[in-house]
Amino acid sequence: MSYFALEPSSLGQQLAGYMSQLKQQLMDSFVASAIPPEVLSSSDPCLVHISDTPSVFYPTLFRLLEKIKPHVLIHTGDMVDQLKLQNHAYLYNLYQKQLQQFIGRLENLPVDIIYLVPGNHDDPNLISRICRRCRVVPEDSLVQFGAFKLGLAHEPQNLPPKADFALYGHSLDEPPTTAGQPLSGLKNINILLPDGRIYFIPYPRGTDVARGIKPRPRKL
């Protein structure tokens, strides 16, 4: 009887291929179940709001955006969140590389308008140099989506007053009551339709760990 042993490199390649396939299946399953049917069936332009994105979330994010096909995308800061650039300046080169890749992929999406609000772990000057068509706006900005005024900031205390909706990230602190209806991009991926309907998509498991914050308990 003959026995054939797999070379370690061959076994490693097979295992890596299996894990990659499993990861893809899990991502596809999450995307398929996460997007509300009302969003997919709507012919109206929609807006997607995200914030504090670690790079481990990028593949799922781009899959979601490809499915949702938003008219407007708003990112309220900390675009390579796991590096915590403000605390780890020595990671700047890695931050620059991952940021360039991230913004490059964003700008290749069929999204009409992209707003980027730099966060405390971002370099606003670098973001502005990288962007070809993204609109880089500071905190305390107001933008229009349909009939609604949207207040934008990374940190909730920096939101402008008198907006209809307040889009922010950074922390779980509540914004001022004068800022408008709060939409935290740290808690959820927010989807806004022109008639004012709002839908929430939870971030995939592991996102908060990559952000360096304690995972929040999920509702049963």
Describe this structure in words.
This protein is an alpha/beta fold and 220 residues long. It has one domain: Metallo-dependent phosphatases (Purple Acid Phosphatase, chain A, domain 2, 4-Layer Sandwich). 33% of the residues lie in helices and 19% in strands. The chain has 6 helices and 10 strands; from the N terminus they run ααβαβαβαβββββββα. It has helices at 8-34, 37-41, 58-68, 92-108, 124-130, 207-211; strands at 47-50, 72-75, 113-116, 135-136, 141-145, 148-152, 165-168, 181-184, 188-192, 198-202. The strands form 2 sheets. It has a 6-stranded mixed β-sheet, with helices on one face. Strands 5-6-7-8 form a 4-stranded mixed β-sheet, with no helix packed on it. α1 (8-34) packs across α3. The longest helix has 27 residues, at 8-34. The protein is globular and about 65 Å long. The protein starts with 7 loop residues before the first helix and ends in a 9-residue tail after the last helix. 32% of the residues are buried. The mean pLDDT is 90.
